[in-house]
Write a structure and sequence with these properties.
The chain has a single domain, classed as 3-Layer(aba) Sandwich (Rossmann fold). 44% of the residues lie in helices and 19% in strands. The longest helix is centred in the C-terminal third of the chain and has 23 residues.
């Protein structure tokens, strides 16, 4: 599996893994994660498609400046990287924070997005309570660093029934979170707090859309993910997952993605007739 780092602009560089050949599929992880969230998905998916799994700015091995940034800035990072890779169109699949970035890509760079998916994410903006929670998290990280915040966050990521059985995976996710840059985490919290409502993107986009929710998700419940309907919109409820189906039910998520990609391929062929 080839690993790369690419300078996007100024002090921003993105780290990513690039594997497989064929139509490109871009995987964007959630808050305080890295491309390693997709460890159980990438190998099999890359036997059918070219899969590019990216560390968002300030996460994993990707750099970030001290300047504030927005979800739209993070989307522009991905647009720049895909242009550098000479990719004209891709399917973008975003988990949680990565889903917010995906929606910004779909709105701001629609020519770049052949299809997209939200995995445990939503088109809605933060509620006032959620915005206060983001501020509290920013202040906590400022005062205490990442450890206590990630310990608390990790307890909400997995379905209750998976916390003990998947203790090693919980620790794996914690470790990734501990290593997130402080300014990356705080910048992403600010960006999520200030993000706009993009439910209209879900309702107005004509491209294939995949919506995945976890039955036991304590962060983004299914009703906040499944807000749009249509023949081109595929809903998948992960029965044994919380917020982390790529780790909690990787085989089931992989089946959903491969099934969706089959529909994307069919949609492309029909439009070429």
């Amino acid at each position: 599996m080839a690993e790369y780092e690419s300078t996007i602009h100024k002090d921003i560089s993105l780290y990513y893994e690039d594997k497989g050949v064929g139509k490109p599929v871009v995987l964007l992880h959630g808050f305080c994660g890295t491309h390693a969230y997709w460890k159980y998905i990438m190998e099999e998916l890359s036997s059918y498609y070219r899969v590019i799994a990216i560390d968002l700015r300030g996460h994993g091995k990707s750099a970030v400046s001290e300047e504030p940034f927005s979800i739209d800035d993070m989307a522009q990072d991905i647009d720049h990287l895909l242009k550098q890779l000479e990719i004209e169109k891709a399917t973008i699949l975003g988990h949680s924070l990565g889903g917010y970035v995906t929606l910004a890509l779909a709105e701001n760079f629609p020519h770049m997005v052949e299809a997209f998916g939200l995995i445990h994410s939503t088109g809605a903006e933060d509620s006032e309570d959620a915005k206060k929670g983001r501020e509290k998290a920013i202040n906590r990280i400022n005062e205490e660093g990442m450890k206590g915040f990630i310990e608390e966050l990790s307890g909400r990521l997995f379905a209750d029934e998976n916390m003990e059985e998947m203790a090693n995976e919980v620790e794996f996710v914690k470790k990734l979170g501990f290593n997130t840059r402080v300014n990356g985490a705080q910048g992403a919290l600010e960006a999520m707090k200030n993000r706009m409502n993009r439910e209209h993107v879900l309702k107005e986009s004509n491209c294939p859309i995949l919506l995945v929710a976890g039955k036991g998700d304590k962060i983004i419940p299914a009703e906040k993910t499944f807000t749009a309907q249509g023949p081109h919109i595929h809903h998948t409820l992960m029965e044994k997952s919380g917020h982390m189906s790529m780790i909690e039910e990787p085989n089931e998520l992989l089946d959903a993605i491969i099934g969706f990609m089959g529909y994307v391929d069919e949609h492309r062929r029909n439009n070429q007739k």
